[in-house]
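Input chain follows. Return structure tokens only.
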Amino acid sequence: MDVHRFRHLLAEARRAADDSDAAATFQRALATWHGTPFATADTPWFNAARDTLQKEQRAAELECTDLRLRLGEHAGLLAVLAERSAAHPLDERLAAQYMLALYRCSRQADALAHYRHLRGMLAEELGIDPGQELQRLHQAILSGDAELSAPTVHASVRRPAGSAWAVQCQLPLATPGFAGRSELLHRLEELLAPPAGVPVVVSGLPGVGKTALAVHLGHRLRPAFPDGQWYVRLLGTTDRPRDPSEVLSGLLRACGQDADTIPQALEDRAAAFRSRVADRRVLLILDDAADAEQIRPLLPGTAGVSVLVTSRRDLWGLTVSHAAHIVPLDVLELPEAITLLTGILGEQRVGAEPEAAARLAELCARLPLALRIAAANLAARPGRSLTRYADELADGNRLAKLSIVGDRQAAVRTAFDHSHAALEPAAARLFALLGLHPGSDFTAEAAAALPGAEPTATERLLDQLVTAGLVQRTASDRFQFHDLLRLYAAEHAAADPGQAAAWQRLCAWYLATTDAATAFDYRGRAQLPRPRAESHRFADRDQASAWLDEERANLIAVIRRAAETGPRPFAWQLADQLRMYLYHRRHQPEWEAAATAALEAAERDGEALARASMQHSLGLLRLSTGEVETALETLHSALDGYRSTGFAPGEAAILSNLALLHGQRGQMRLARQWQEQGVGILRSLDRGLQLSGALNTLAVIHTYLGEFTPAVERTTEAIGICLKEEAPQALISPLINRALAHHGLGRYGEALADGTEALRRCRDHQDRHDEANAHLAVAITHRDTGRADLAAGHAEQALQAARTSGEPASEIDALITSGSVDHLRGNPARAAALLDEALTLAERHDFRQQHAEIQTWLAHARLAMGDTARAAAHAEHALTTARDLELRPIACLALTALAAVLRATGDPAGAARHAAEAERVAQETSYRLPPVTRLS
């Protein structure tokens, strides 16, 4: 077929003065078709071109049929309409033509039957009903509407009076291999389907595929707009956007109005245009709009004309004046991006390297323009692998490589340049400086820190950047860059002479705001000495915690960037300030990233105190994750660093950490020695909050050694200090440990009160670090006062919290408590299973104190199951370990278990001897044995 002749005849038919001439010309155009275009070609481009041409053929057939029906040629159309309806059974316009022809041929029943058939198919295959127009035709046929009758005179039906209407199809060739957007296309089709009446604006960043989407959609909608499909480039991103008056003149001429009758004034032209398109069905695509003012004069006044606008700006003003639908266009999803690459490169090439294709899509940030450029470069080099090309893109200036040699317009940077050139200087500079921000998103406050401006003024500039499509506003009223635009902004930042000062201002803002946010609940007990200004930035702790949560990823990114490029002190200062927040909230990956980067920065700058502080942080992290040997080595290195620099608060903090570490290993006497040294240092320094932490740790050691009264005294002193220092979150751990000491003394009421209060504070402060232990303090108290169901609930919550936080010591304690509760409830088999799991963990981490406690409970469970031999072995093992480690309460439990085993095996004398020893230990320590152990 001759495409040019076909399209020339279509245009001539649409300009014809009467229906008879128009129908004849349409038939001549359709006669140029001979078979299927490019029938033997099978490539993505030829397939797309073939599809486009076939759609044009079908649209011409439908227009020609409408004319012939108006001319009364229904009888001659019946056979061909039957054939087409069978080929395209879901085409509602074609169905309407066939039904009308049947009705006019006195076959009303057949017309109604065809409607029922179509309605059934639409419901079954698409889940929808026929459109309103087809429903109206159905009703008209049912009622025998006279307007459906064939015309009596048809040879010279004239077109509307005045200048002849010229039907135009100005759509550019649809982009071959258009991929994705299926849901969005369906939504846009619904919004634009006549009678629409409300303009639709598709907005998005440069290169996201707005024009391709509009043109693709225009071709899909052609049959719905028989009076024309107009396409106008408004050049909104150039330095000379088209004048609306000039555009209106072109549209009036295109639709057949004589040039000498076109008015001169803009308002008159707009009125003439509205008059010309009244009651017509036209699709008007206004591509690349500059602003709402450029669009308003071009909008029609009747519902038959559907308007689709594309713009890098969001054009929200049109929602006020014309109730426009604003439809943001984002980058492609990964599967869509790979489909686009496949459409250009072919399934075989992309399928051979699926991982490289996915990586390439992400390197192009799934931006359609970038993807097409990358695919074109690969298509021009058929021997180059996708893996090699992706490596080339990743290494070096990616924006420079995403271009076609010799075609400046086919470049991602050029697309961005058009939008950037339109910015006012202040907005352009802010855009450049934002390229320094290392995080995934940012607030107006953070953006304002870069130029040192007020947030309100900065937010106005950010609005300009959002409107220009260079920055996106997220749902939480934060801002973010598209990945390639971030690289583009960074290029501009590198050329800004003030970029170093701007980066320093951003780091200083993050550090000062972190100081303010952590002042409520996360003040460190051995922070690096530096000035910290008082701040009223946050109204309360909830607001402060919310800021830390929102900015956590950005804070880690700032630490990493500062560690790499400087100023390096910001890296270790921020990491030091965040330590307690990351510790209590259990953000272990971020904690490790921050401390590791900051340690490297301190080592590069030779800062001994900062180095010790970051080793301290990493040692505490290893301790919390159960990496005992690594923690021990790292903490001793930090201790040496603190001592060499004379930083006594740091030394005291390390002594507390070493005490805790040795306590976990069951070395309680050594742990007490370390901790008492730390308490002595802190009492001489008058550092109340840090002293409270050290006293709390000392109380834990006292409890394991069976020194319950000193444990209550130490925790009570720690609680008093926290209240005096107004540090409510710091109260949680002393409350838990006082509850455990009270429990050991059998003061169950006091234990439950302290445990419940600790649990409430954990929830109030979102303290995930202490949550498991608070539940456990409550659980064992309920267990030993006969409330097994309540105990089981808290034990289960403790286990969940411990597993979520990743603390093995807390997980082991939760398993022990759950097992002991199951033993109390008469389910020794399940108890043994939980205790065996706890035993495996304790052996893995070398937690000897917990290992001994687990053995005592296993002895009770095995005995209840009738396995006296294993029960005796567990009890003897527990007793040996407890005596070695001087863990007197656990020794008391082991003696009680061993006495029960001996009674069960017929050795009452041995049982009495061990029971007496257990009673003696209990009296010496004031230890109250758990009632559950007496069930055995």
